[in-house]
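README: folding subset

This subset contains proteins for which both the sequence and a predicted structure token string are available. Records are stored as plain text. Below is the entry for TlpA family protein disulfide reductase (154 residues), shown exactly as it appears on disk.
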Amino acid sequence: MGRLMSYTSVKLKAEKTIPENTYNWEIKDLNGKTHAFQENKGKVVFLNLWATWCKPCLKEMPDIQALYNDYSDKVSFMLVSEEESIKVKGFVSKKSYRLPFYLADDHMPEIFKSTTIPTTYIISKQGKIVMAENGAIDWNSEEVRRLLEKLIVE
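--- output ---
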């Protein structure tokens, strides 16, 4: 699938409720273990669609890592690439990121499909997309942290 890189952030329309069939989506971790999106039902989710060749994606990785360091026990982080396993594994082995990277197949749910990367969604425990962004932003900002704190206690 051809994708564009976005160097600037564009807010997408949020407050969509995730369709029930989205929870049937399966992705694999870098060890080849299959995970169902269903595992995240009832949790706050930080879903980032990215690629190893995408400079804006790489630019926001340190911010995502900082957020993950502080919220990994309360928020389900998913960094999903549609690239081949060998490319993503190669990237991860060269970097010091300790993030949950996953590989998606061609069956990405319609609600998450995007022609631009990075694309990031923050999803509430109730399954609503409360924040959606195309392009790199500072994910370690006070605004994002306040949003996560609010969603965690809801």
